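[recover] target loaded
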C-alpha cells in the first residue's frame, strides 16, 4: 500500500535572527487534505516557521519540502499560498477587493496580467466562497478586519493553491468571519486541500483542526487535538502555564 507524500515535511529546521534562536530543530509532518493547527505563544516561532516554508527567511540548517519538492518549486507552480499575519498593504491605496483577489491569478497569466474569462470566473468563485461578492468593488481598506482576512484567503483560493498557510487568520475577526472561515477551511480539506493555520483561539481548535502541533521554538507535540491539547503539553508550549482559553478543551 503506497503512502501519500506529505504536503509539508520539515526536518531539523534551525533559524536564527542574529544571536536569537527562532526555531531550534523543528520537525513537522502534515498529510494532505487536513486542517492542521499551529499553536504557541507570541515569539514561539510560528510566523518564522511560515516564512521558512515560503523561503522568506534563511535557515541555518534543516530541510523544508512541500509535496516532496522544494518550497521554491511549489511557489513557482502556484501550489502554495501564504497569508501572513500582517499583510504589507497600503490600506489607503485605491484598489478593490476584487483586484486583491485577482492577484492570486497573476502566476498563471504572465507579465501582462490581463485576466481571461477563466481567471475572472476563478476570482468570482473565490469571492463567493468567502461571502464577499457583495463587497467585491469596495476599496480594500474599507473592509472590517475579518473581511480583510477573508479577502486574502480568497486570493489563495483564486490561485487554486493546494496548500494554504494562514498565520493568525482569526485574530481580530468578527464572529461571522470566524464561522465563515472555519466552515470554508473544513470544506477545503474535504476537497483534498491542505491548510496549516496558526491561532491563539484554542477553544475553536476542535471544530477547526484535524491535528495540531504545539510550538515553542521546537515542536513540543503533534497529533490529534484531544491527545495534544493536554495541560502538561500546553504548559511546555506556553512557558510553564496553561492558557485559560485551553481549560475548556484540555482533557
Amino acid at each position: 500500500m503506497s503512502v501519500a507524500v506529505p504536503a509539508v515535511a520539515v526536518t531539523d529546521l534551525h533559524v536564527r535572527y542574529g544571536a536569537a534562536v527562532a526555531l531550534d530543530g523543528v520537525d513537522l509532518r502534515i498529510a494532505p487534505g487536513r486542517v492542521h493547527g499551529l499553536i504557541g505563544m507570541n515569539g514561539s516561532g510560528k510566523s518564522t516557521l511560515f516564512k521558512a516554508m515560503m523561503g522568506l527567511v534563511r535557515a541555518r540548517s534543516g530541510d523544508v519540502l512541500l509535496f516532496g519538492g522544494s518550497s521554491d518549486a511549489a511557489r513557482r507552480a502556484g501550489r502554495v499560498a501564504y497569508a501572513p499575519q500582517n499583510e504589507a498593504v497600503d490600506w489607503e491605496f485605491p484598489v478593490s477587493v476584487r483586484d486583491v483577489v485577482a492577484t492570486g491569478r497573476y502566476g498563471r497569466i504572465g507579465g501582462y496580467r490581463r485576466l481571461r474569462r477563466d481567471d475572472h470566473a476563478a476570482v468570482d468563485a473565490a469571492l463567493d466562497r468567502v461571502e464577499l461578492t457583495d463587497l467585491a468593488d469596495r476599496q480594500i481598506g474599507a473592509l472590517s478586519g475579518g473581511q480583510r482576512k477573508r479577502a486574502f484567503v480568497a486570493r489563495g483560493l483564486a490561485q487554486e493553491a493546494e496548500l494554504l498557510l494562514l498565520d493568525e487568520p482569526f485574530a481580530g475577526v468578527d464572529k461571522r468571519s470566524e464561522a465563515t472561515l472555519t466552515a470554508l477551511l473544513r470544506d477545503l480539506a474535504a476537497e483534498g486541500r491542505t491548510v496549516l493555520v496558526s491561532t491563539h483561539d484554542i477553544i475553536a481548535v476542535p471544530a477547526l483542526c484535524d491535528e495540531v502541533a504545539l510550538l515553542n521554538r521546537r515542536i513540543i507535540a503533534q497529533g490529534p487535538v484531544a491527545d495534544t491539547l493536554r495541560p502538561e503539553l500546553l504548559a511546555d508550549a506556553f512557558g510553564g502555564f496553561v492558557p485559560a482559553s485551553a481549560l475548556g478543551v484540555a482533557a
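[recover] notes: Residues 85 and 125 are 24 Å apart (CA to CA).
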